[in-house]
Automatic annotation (TrEMBL):
Gene3D superfamilies linked: P-loop containing nucleotide triphosphate hydrolases
Lineage: Archaea, Methanobacteriati, Methanobacteriota, Methanomada group, Methanobacteria
GO molecular function: ATP binding; ATP hydrolysis activity
Domain of life where this protein originates: Archaea
Domain ABC transporter intervals: 5-232
Entries under InterPro entries matching the protein: AAA+_ATPase (IPR003593), ABC_transporter-like_ATP-bd (IPR003439), P-loop_NTPase (IPR027417)
Keyword ATP-binding: yes
PROSITE patterns noted in UniProt: ABC_TRANSPORTER_2 (PS50893)
Protein name from the UniProt record: ABC transporter ATP-binding protein
Source species: Methanobrevibacter olleyae
Keywords annotated in UniProt: ATP-binding, Nucleotide-binding
Length: 241
């Protein structure tokens, strides 16, 4: 079976500092995989390697069985970085259109998809507003719409719900589940435990190592704790010793 995402003994050094150490993981199509870990654990480094923005020092990473970096699969990936990559002097509509054209989406398809996505992020009535006039949470919502405009098969979201209000966060997750049902693989980093619990599987990262990996329920059982948050703390402290 073709894996959506696979890393094999992935390593990354910044100078002498080991940010990733022999990290292997697999994510299936139609799976939501949560990457959890304390600040500096290595989550963004993994994501940047998967998106072809950083080269690993050792090991390999694959998207849909293609070794990255690889231009051939760039349109299969939807990447939402922590810092929004929007043109602040352009409107929401112009930003979405820009990303759509970048991925070669036809004009007649853009309109329908833009409407679907702007309704999903609840910004349809704001589509002619300039980005610099939006709040931080609104910019995140536009960024997510831009990430999804080309119907990517693998979606990589680095803390997509920071600054997004609780009601909208729930609607984000409903949409992620719809995409998952369509066979899309989603890799998501989050510091919110209620969101981690919505993932099919979680990988806990600390000091560049995958220290635990399982369904949220089984992680709690493995750790012998009452909550995912306590399981996360227990695994992280074990790794710090
Ligand atoms: N360009 C860089 N040069 C040197 N060190 C770096 C660089 N980028 C990241 N690091 C270090 O590598 C480690 C992993 O960073 P990374 O951004 O992957 O962590 P993270 O898990 O995404 O953290 P956060 O939850 O804060 O976003 C950190 O210790 C960070 O300081």
């Amino acid at each position: 079976m073709v894996c959506a995402v696979r890393t094999v003994l992935l390593g990354k050094k910044y100078g002498d500092f080991k940010a990733l150490d022999n990290l292997s993981l697999e994510i299936n199509k139609g799976e939501i995989y949560g990457l959890l870990g304390p600040n500096g654990a290595g989550k963004t480094t993994i994501i940047k390697i998967l998106c072809g923005l950083l080269n690993p020092t050792s090991g390999e990473a694959y998207i849909l069985d293609n070794k990255v970096p690889n231009k051939k699969i760039s349109s299969d990936i939807g990447y939402m970085p922590q810092e929004t990559a929007l043109y602040s002097g352009l409107t929401i509509h112009q930003n979405i259109e820009f990303y759509a054209k970048l991925f070669g989406i036809k004009n007649n398809e853009i309109k329908e998809k833009e409407m679907e996505l702007l309704n999903f992020v609840d910004l349809y009535d704001w589509r002619n507003e300039i980005i610099e006039n939006l709040s931080g949470g609104m910019k995140h919502r536009v960024s997510l719409a831009c990430t999804l405009i080309h119907n990517p098969k693998v979606i990589i979201l680095d803390e997509p719900t920071v600054g997004v209000d609780p009601e909208l966060r729930i609607s984000f997750w409903n949409y992620f589940n719809k995409l998952k049902d369509e066979g899309v693989a989603i890799l998501i980093t989050t510091h919110y435990m209620d969101e981690a619990e919505r993932c099919d599987r979680i990988g806990l990262i600390n000091h560049g190592h995958l220290i635990a990996e399982n369904t949220p329920k089984n992680l709690i059982i493995e750790a012998g704790t009452d909550s995912l948050e306590d399981a996360f703390l227990k695994f992280s402290r074990m790794c710090d010793r």
